[in-house]
């Protein structure tokens, strides 16, 4: 193993044990059995090394999650795939908790570290189509709806991370999340352009008033007067 690989391994160890902000260059040198000059030679700065180590750790976690999904079986339902994925994420909070802490810390640091922000954004871009396939496997990887589903699942994953770091006893289980998605989907219903149920559970067609955010924008058409209709014909 060369100095570059030693530095990455030492930086990952420091991320787990000390966190992103509390890790010094000397900590990494001690953990990797290298020297300060090696950091500058191979990475340019301690921050660049820690960013590379953090992304490498995320890739390692992602590979483990892929293994969990593969083990779940290709013929599983979308609901089963989502529940398996969330179960794997929840398990990782125990097995990789220091990594998740470092990740949340890195997200806040990315605001002032453009290089780190760019790398994390790239990681998210790669994750969207893969996560979207859990719900919409038949759509093309670049299909807007599949990418939107991936973004939604990333948002849930980030929120689940924060809740577990703050109050793990109150955080939802994988079953809770699946039940919530089902309840929300049932309430929202299909798109109203088809005349199918709208967000409040009433049909969007069949004389119903147009709705914006669930509020009627006009009064619905009145029911026809049977007597007036009868007298209009010979």
TrEMBL record:
Residues 1-61 form the HTH tetR-type domain. Residues 24-43 bind DNA. One of its GO terms (molecular function) is transcription cis-regulatory region binding. Pfam families: TetR_C_31, TetR_N. Keywords: DNA-binding. InterPro entries: Homeodomain-like_sf, HTH-type_TetR-like_transc_reg, HTH_TetR, TetR_C_31. PROSITE patterns: HTH_TETR_2 (PS50977). Signal peptide: none annotated. PANTHER family: HTH-TYPE TRANSCRIPTIONAL REGULATOR RUTR, TRANSCRIPTIONAL REGULATORY PROTEIN. This is TetR family transcriptional regulator. It comes from Saccharothrix syringae (Nocardiopsis syringae).
